Amino acid sequence: MARVLIIGCGGVASVAIRKCCKNSDVFREIMIASRTLSKCDALAAKLKGTTDTVIKTAQVDADDQDALCELIRSYKPDLVMNIALPYQDLTIMDACLQCGVDYMDTANYEPENLDDPVWKARYEKRCKEEGFSALFDYSWQWDYKDKFKDAGLTALLGSGFDPGVTQVFCAYAQKHLFDEIETIDILDCNGGDHGYPFATNFNPEINLREVSAPGSYWQDGKWIEVAPMSIKRQYDFDGVGVKDMYLLHHEEIESLAKNIKGVKRIRFFMTFGQSYLTHMKCLENVGMLSTTPIEYEGREIVPIQFLKALLPDPASLGPRTKGKTNIGCIFTGVKDGKRKTAYIYNVCDHQECYKEVESQAISYTTGVPAMIGAKMILTGKWDKKGVFTPEEFDPDPFMDELNKNGLPWKIVDDPVLVD
Ligand code: NDP
Q1: pTM recorded for the entire structure
Q2: Is the Cβ atom of 62 under 6 angstroms away from ligand 1?
Q3: Which of 69, 235, 270, 318 is the most buried (most CB within 10 A)?
Q4: Mean per-residue pLDDT for 46-65?
Q5: Residue 33: inside a domain, yes or no?
Q6: Is residue 308 part of a domain?
Q7: What CATH number is associated with residue 218?
């Protein structure tokens, strides 16, 4: 039915690609295009003979809009799936606009070079006006709304698990469970153990930038920012057990605050073990998380990129990781005049994921919704022109696909709440 260009061939993209190949009725042809061609070729060779999807590969630098346009014009895809890094979001969106093709991604834009004066000036203004200092925000991509609308194109932002499925859960709660949602707590628990003292489950640079930043939450129409990891709670997660979790800033809070009408508070918590936090603090204290280049023996190196080279490749964690993830949203609100609470979540087993797609559950829980988001656009089930986040569409077909593609969800009434 459709032809799709997938950019990136890392941990998350590999899962999305394998899942596209299991949905060959929709994904008739795919092209895997990334910076390192050998990774695309290796995956294509592995999948050969296992799927009806026709797979092609290409090398592309997604920071180069002209190169992207040349590839898009020659392959003529119906959709571009950006599963590279958030650094490439704007270039790929520009290329999609220039060539007239729909777009989707799994994480919102942030710049690679934090010293870029144009970005810095706008960032500093936003910190002052909005009150949160995360390096990423939706404003850069929301600026494309009219351009995509006028071109008759769709851009779907953040179709992973969180962001992504968490927003679909919110849309589902809004549609079926509540007349008014008052609070949302998004809980992201990874109970997996890979046996290393320190490793990140997805791209280390993006991951460490996110978790070392100040936390923030939305309350009564404004952002409240707190020191990194300064709000700690414990929760007993189904399938995992009791874990410490910490309040983080997270991108979907920004869009949910706009799209879930009347919501009074939105928070995001992620679990971390003590070993992870101790290592991260130490690396931060010695400057290893810095993105500012330094001179070392006549060469320029970026400390966090050097650290990435030392850490285990997240894609290599798959066979070693045991345990489960549990990610979901707890809601409080009102239905038919009565107070009500509900929890929608998914539990995913690292080893089961590895058996199916040779990846751990973090890549799995992101790659599956990336495929589903693409499927929603390609089948016309999500059909609006402009730039949108997942909660702006009908959640029902997406929720059905989660059940069919390895991420079944549960709804629990009267869950234990987070104080
Ligand atoms: P990886 O680092 O494993 O993979 C990134 C891929 O992008 C690699 O194949 C890399 O190529 C390629 N790439 C990087 N730069 C370029 C470029 N300039 N041109 C072409 N290709 C490029 O990252 P992950 O798979 O872990 O993460 C992918 C995305 O998923 C990220 O945006 C991340 O933030 C997001 N994510 C979203 C989550 C969610 O729930 N929404 C959760 C986890 C991740 P090379 O092989 O040469 O390095």
Answers
A1: 0.95
A2: yes
A3: 318
A4: 97
A5: no
A6: yes
A7: 3.30.360.10
Return the residue whose CA atom lies nearest to atom 44 of ligand 1. 202
Is 108 touching ligand 1 by the criterion CB < 6 Å?
Answer: no
Domain of 298 in residue numbering reads as 165-357
Query: Is any ligand 1 atom within 6 A of the Cβ of residue 164?
Result: yes
Q: Whose CA is nearest to atom 34 of ligand 1?
A: 107
Contact between 208 and 356 under an 8 Å Cβ cutoff? The reply is no
Cα-Cα-Cα-Cα dihedral sign, residues 329, 173, 135, 215 = negative
Q: 107-122, pLDDT tens digit by residue?
A: 999 998 888 999 999 9
C-alpha 277 – ligand 1 centre gap (Å): 23
Atom from ligand 1 closest to the CA of residue 86: 32
Ligand 1 center to 10 CA (angstroms): 6
Q: Which of 79, 84, 60 is nearest to 70 (CA)?
A: 60
Strand pairing class (241-247; 265-271)? antiparallel
- 3-class SS of residue 163: coil
pLDDT computed for residue 279 by the predictor = 92
**163 touches ligand 1 (CB under 6 Å):** yes
The β-bridge partners of 56 are: 31
The count of structural domains within the chain is 1
Residue of 7, 12, 37, 169 with the most ligand 1 atoms within 8 Å of its CB, for mutation: 12
| Contact in structure between 83 and 370 (CB atoms under 8 Å) | yes
Q: Is there an atom of ligand 1 within 6 Å of 386 CB?
A: no
Model pLDDT for residues 141-197, shown as the tens digit of each residue: 999 999 999 999 999 999 999 999 999 999 999 999 999 999 999 999 999 999 998
For 220, counting Cβ atoms within 10 Å of its Cβ (0-12 exposed, 13-18 middle, 19+ buried), the class is: exposed
pLDDT level of residue 292 (50, 70, 90 thresholds): confident
73 in any annotated domain: no
